[in-house]
Amino acid sequence: MDSPIGELRIVEQHDAIVAIEFSPFRPPGERALGERDDGHPVLAEAVRQLRAYFGREVQEFDLPLAPQGSEFAQRVWKELLALPYGETASYGQIAVRLGHTNAASRAVGLANGRNPIPIVIPCHRVIGANGALTGYAGGLERKQLLLGLETDGLF
Fold first, then answer.
1. Residue 128 has what pLDDT?
2. Comparing 61-65, 99-103, 116-120, which segment has the lowest mean pLDDT?
């Protein structure tokens, strides 16, 4: 789908979203992709909700998600889903919320960077302890745009 932050590829398996990818997309050989089916109900609903998000009509997503990752990564991603629209948290704050010390912030950062469903699982809301924007799989410009959309409605 086209979006204000570039083209997105939404991947569904077994009636759940397993990935949202930013362009430029990985070559198909790096991960098996099924036949393109824009009419699949889960994909159509994901596109509808993403368009509503970019249009500032919704702040939360209601989609079946099935991100693949370690148990720790799953816990991090679940915590990201609890981050409210327009708010941010540091890697250390996420670590503490998971019952770890701030020292686990590096592990949180690694899990955050492996989030296969960005935007919907809002990894863009995680920032450095000093408030600085830090790495983002889609690039810092996209992260800044997403945070700007949520805080002041501007792209």
1. 86
2. 99-103
Q: How is residue 100 annotated by DSSP?
A: -
Q: Among the options 17, 123, 147, 149, which is catalytic?
A: 123
**Does residue 51 sit in helix, strand or coil?**
helix
Structural domain tally of the chain? 1
| CA dihedral angle for residue 124, residue 117, residue 77, residue 81, rounded to 10 degrees | 70
pTM here is 0.90
Residue 20 resides in a domain: no
CATH number for the domain including 113?
A: 1.10.10.10
**Is 123 one of the annotated active-site residues of the chain?**
yes
SS3 readout for the chain: CCCCCCCEEEEEECCEEEEEEECCCCCHHHCCCCCCCCCCHHHHHHHHHHHHHHCCCCCCCCCCECCCCCHHHHHHHHHHHCCCCCCCEEHHHHHHHCCCCHHHHHHHHHHHHCCCCCCCCCHHHEECCCCCCCCCCCCHHHHHHHHHHHHHCCC
**Is the pLDDT score of 3 beyond 70?**
yes
